[in-house]
Amino acid sequence: MTTKYAALLRGINVSGHKRVPMPELRTVLGELGHTDIATHLQSGNAVFRSDGKDETALAAALEQALHERFGFSVSCIVRSGSYLAAVAEACPFPAAELEGRQLHVTYFDRAVESGRFAALDAQVYRPEAFELGDRCLYLYAPDGLGRSKLAEALARPRQTAGLTATTRNWNTVAKLVEMTRV
Predict the structure, then answer these.
(1) How far is CA 98 from CA 32, 139, 166, 179, in A?
(2) Cα–Cα distances in Å, from 50 out to 124, 142, 180?
(3) pLDDT tens digits, one per residue of 97-117
(4) Rounded percentage of the chain residues whose pLDDT exceeds 70
(5) How is domain 87-179 classified at the architecture level of CATH?
(6) Is the pLDDT assigned to residue 82 strictly greater than 90?
(7) What is the pLDDT of residue 119?
(8) Residue 177, CA distances (Å) to 50, 58, 81 in order
(9) Is the pTM of this model over 0.90?
(10) Mean pLDDT across the chain, nearest whole number?
């Protein structure tokens, strides 16, 4: 039985750097044996069906194929549709009441211990706020990610060392949940 997954590529198609055209991404996924492939936006969101059950192995295979195809490294996180739906359901912020640009999810390649962000004084950044979830971090940024001082603090090397992380706004989170429904 196949599983529906989302591949979240980090840092592509930003200011003309690391260009990965979505038709080529779909081709690469197809060459890896995946089916029912679709992309969303130009920022590295793809969904596909696979017999594979190991998200880490699926991500590693995609990273290798992208490196071979484009000649540069692209970090990828692969998550099942059921995981994406659970993350959306567990959101600690009132997603239905917020604009998509105000709420974000940062997906991590593995579980993150709560102590990693303990030194960060979240009160300083109010009304912005964050909460850790299952291999993710929820960020409420009322003025958007581009103006968020909290997002900047969360992304500092001391906070993210050794992690692969990629962030999506709530509109994209919801769209990927929809696209990965079985």
Answers:
(1) 38, 12, 21, 21
(2) 44, 37, 12
(3) 999 999 999 999 999 988 888
(4) 99
(5) 2-Layer Sandwich (3.30)
(6) yes
(7) 86
(8) 17, 19, 6
(9) yes
(10) 93
What residues have CB less than 8 Å from 21, skipping those under 6 apart? none
Burial class (CB in 10 A: 0-12, 13-18, 19+), 119: exposed
CA angle at 57 for the pair 61 and 35, rounded to the nearest 5°: 65
Nearest-angstrom CA–CA distance, 112 and 91: 17
Considering the chain, tell me which residue range(s) the CATH 3.30.70.1280 domain(s) occupy.
3-83
User: 85 near 118, Cβ under 8 Å?
Assistant: no
**Which CATH class name applies to 3-83?**
alpha beta
